[in-house]
Amino acid sequence: MLTFWQHGYETTSIVDLTTAMGVTAPSLYSAFGDKKRLFLEAARLYAGDPEVMAGEIRGAPTAYDAANAMLTSAAIAFTGEATPKGCLLASATASGSAEARDVQGEIAGIRKSIAASLEARIHSDVANGALPGATDAAALAGLIMAVVQGMSVLARDGASRSSLLGIVSAALAAWPKADGACGCPDRDDG
Q: Cβ(39)–Cβ(4) under 8 Å?
């Protein structure tokens, strides 16, 4: 996983992988079939169980809390000391050839699943009055996903954890509230 994270899907060679894993090429092929299947397994390990993520989003007190947790966790993970900077899902497939489109599609599917869970949670808050009725749930979920992806790029460029956490605060300051005020709980600007 760390090798793909550091070098990207297409530029990581079988030699890179066997060296990192301490196995032979035949063992790698026997266990995973090919590099693509190994990468997709690594991506699933990184992303976690989509049902668990969906459950965490559904179980958050509000959609704001779910978004805050997602963004804060991303800022911390993207600046970890023991891992490459940024997000494996964003950096490993940011560019690629036509031959890697199916892999890019699989990764996009993971992101779409997370966005759909957040969008559903936002719809729930609209239905119960915690968010204004005019809230565009798809756009708001898309905003959070775009901030996550942007933070990944900034982390790869060397942004600090505190810088990313500042971005989290700035993004969440735009969160709508039922009365039209800012959704940020530590502001009282109405």
A: yes
Q: How many helices (H) and strands (E) would you count in the chain?
A: 10, 0
Burial 115-125 (b: 16+ CB within 10 A, else e): bebbbebbbbb
**Whole-number CA gyration radius for the chain:** 19
pLDDT per residue as tens digits for the range 74-90:
999 999 999 999 988 88
- Listing DSSP states for 93-136 in one string gives TSS--GGGHHHHHHHHHHHHHHHHHHHHHHHHHHHTTSS-TT--
pTM assigned to the model: 0.84
Q: Could you tell me if 153 and 86 are in contact, meaning their C-beta atoms sit under 8 angstroms apart?
A: yes
The answer to whether the CB of 71 falls within 8 A of the CB of 147 is yes
Note the pLDDT tens digit of each residue in 42-84: 988 888 888 888 999 999 999 999 999 999 999 999 999 999 9
